[in-house]
Amino acid sequence: MSCWMPGCPALSMCRSLATLPITCLERAKDLKTRLGILLHKPELGHMIGTSSKLQLGSRRRDSSREVLEWRESFDQLLKSKSGVTAFHTFLKTEFSEENLDFWLACEDFKKTRSKTKLASKANRIFEEFVQSEAPREVNIDHETREITRKNLSGATSACFNEAQAKTRTLMEKDSYPRFLKSASYQDMTKQATSRGISKRSHT
After folding, report:
1. pLDDT tens track for 54-72
2. Is 128 inside any structural domain?
3. pTM of this structure
């Protein structure tokens, strides 16, 4: 398109393009060429779609296997992020989620490297979960409570080990078996099993 008249939009646009650095114009042309190639390759879009479906299917198979692994041992459940979430949701229905929250707080506490942060975190965890009449007091014996209190004077990453172990044992022997029998987990295992059957029938 050409125009000799003053104020012509095409003329001003050409002048604007002329002032751009050569590299910018070259990049724009290169981008246009690449977009043209992509637009004329419908099979590429099909490949991307197929890849997404395969990844989604893989994730579903992984999650189905994971759900079934939770019943193998309490350790398997605690190793799984989605397992911990499902177990936490169940514990809320029993008003006993403080046991798992304490265990998770201890796991996080062990990763602390700064001595200053270690001491402040230790006090915060003790006040929230361990001391008598704590807002979210966990069910541990008096002796373990006192051992943990003494450990705070020289807080190390191991100062909650005994209290954490007692809480874990309590969950494993008490809450975990009830979780496996719960309607919510039974529904999850049925879905996981049906996915497995569906997968086998399509192979």
Report:
1. 333 445 555 889 999 999 9
2. yes
3. 0.67
